[in-house]
Amino acid sequence: MVLLKLTVKPWSSSCLLLGLFVFIALLASLSDAEIHYHEFVVQAKPVKRLCRTHNTITVNGQFPGPTLEVRDGDTLIIKAINNARYNVTLHWHGIHQLRNPWADGPEFVTQCPIRPGQSYTYRFTIENQEGTLWWHAHSRWMRATVYGALIIYPRLGVPYPFPMPKKEIPILLGEWWDRNPMDVQKLAIFTGAAPNVSDAYTINGQPGDLYRCSSKETVRFPVESGETILLRVINSAMNQELFFGVANHKLTVVGVDSSYTKPFTTSVIMIGPGQTTNVLLKADQPPGRYYMAAHAYNSANAPFDNTTTTAILEYKSAPCNAKKGKSSTPIFPQLPGFNDTATATAYTAQVKSPTQVEVPTVIDHNLFFTVGLGLNNCSNPNSPRCQGPNGTRFAASINNVSFVFPRTNSLMQAYYQGQPGVFTTDFPPVPPVQFDYTGNVSRGLWQPSKGTKLYKLKYGSTVQIVLQDTSIVTVEDHPMHLHGYEFYVVGMGFGNFNPSRDTAKFNLIDPPKRNTIGTPPGGWVAIRFVANNPGIWLMHCHIDSHLTWGLAMSFLVENGVGKLQTVQPPPLDLPRC
């Protein structure tokens, strides 16, 4: 222990007043924290899109679901009532959930599902987070329609680190199937083939002008000339990275996930499933009508939905078409080509923290994770249950382990209760076999093993993970999401990661802080974080078809010392299995 000898000097009256002011300000900031109570009723409701009405699972009858607006320091108490016919859980994507995995939500990881007719109350506090996050179902493919924005404003009296916008607009980019999404997943699980691609993308639940029976409901955003708008863009699509832009308008990126960034200007953003991006848009063009649009960034050699969703940015002073009495046709933005990896990579490389940050430099756990697809061979190829490539079944894995979710108990409950046989803690820190990850991979390495394996971390340990894409089946941008944490993205590149060459190029000064990051297709990305949140935390690809196939693993972060480093007891109403 180091003892500091302090010399106490008499305070002047001005110092006393300053100290009193600081103390009062601190008390005020603490007392300003609010508790928000919500009831989320998960229920089916008729929703009409693309000329057809479906009995769609919603929250409170809304699609998308309610927007939650809170401030840093606030507490949320949300009672989820399941009136649908499927099991459900809710995940608050990007919330740290410090010492509170019970509120995180992934099915059979931190809780058992809320059965039809039952309820569970999620209780959590926002601690030192600001920005745009979102919430969504985390049970099978329920999140296709069960999702909404979660906006965290700064504490009262704390300004944004950029000019105050005149208005703020959440932009939820989604995917729509012209059938029950749960049936789409069910069929894919049965056949072993890839699921059918979506029939439309949506902006705030509406497909837009380019789809049948949709133009009357196209979302319109009225703006005044000269005003600045903050667009809070969320990719809530199931299986697709997206390019997004607004015709003739520049976008200034000021935040990603729940972190601010160095501002930079672009005409298009690339955003992966699970990610959020805050952009400032200045209404500085001739008054008129301008499309905002999104379409796929498809990095894989695989079928995809090649349609385009639109909404309209509408200047209030825009002239009407005098002859027809109608508004003029909106101007369309130039979006990159579907496979434009160069644009996606250049965009992602510009995202950085606003100032120098404290990145772990001494690493306790140096992990190398291969992430990618695979194929399981069938004893009866091309049978009804083996409709994947060449009569196989699709699979996915990290370090050749295809993650199997338990069915009798959640991982966290089994760990807390000391129940054996639910999981093991032998997840491999490196691939079991080294190979040319992005080259021509031997077919003998295409079939992963299955397991419910966790990787154990001591509280406070420092972690580096290099996420290496593979060319098995196809290279692809995999948006990897880590629950319970944010991490610094210290490097990325193409080809196989070479530690002696690539580590020297890491950005340890101002790397971006994120909760979801994509692996460059046929490349790698390196992340670092401190394991200071005890519990079991899922890490997975946020492309839901890949999650279904097993592209996931979990970290078991052990308790530290004392109450503030220990998982809190589970709530009494935690769903039983």
UniProtKB/TrEMBL annotation:
- Signal sequence extent: 1-33
> What InterPro entries does the record tag this protein with?
Cu-oxidase-like_N, Cu-oxidase_2nd, Cu-oxidase_C, Cu-oxidase_fam, Cu_oxidase_CS, Cu_oxidase_Cu_BS, Cupredoxin, CuRO_1_LCC
Query: Which locations, inside or outside the cell, does it occupy?
Result: Secreted, Extracellular space, Apoplast
Give a GO cellular-component term: apoplast
Biological process (GO), any one:
lignin catabolic process
What does the record give as the reaction this protein catalyses? Answer: 4 hydroquinone + O2 = 4 benzosemiquinone + 2 H2O
Q: Which GO terms describe its molecular function?
A: copper ion binding; hydroquinone:oxygen oxidoreductase activity
The cofactor note reads:
Binds 4 Cu cations per monomer.
Q: Where is the Plastocyanin-like domain?
A: 42-155, 168-317, 426-559
Query: Where do the coiled-coil regions begin and end?
Result: none
Instruction: Please identify the protein, giving its name as recorded.
Output: Laccase
The function of this protein is: Lignin degradation and detoxification of lignin-derived products.
Q: From what superkingdom does this record's organism come?
A: Eukaryota
Is-annotated flag, keyword Glycoprotein?
yes
Cofactor or coenzyme needed: Cu cation
Keywords in alphabetical order: Apoplast, Copper, Glycoprotein, Lignin degradation, Metal-binding, Oxidoreductase, Repeat, Secreted, Signal
**Family designation:** Belongs to the multicopper oxidase family.
**Enzyme Commission numbers on file:** 1.10.3.2
The enzyme's first-digit EC class, named in words, is oxidoreductase
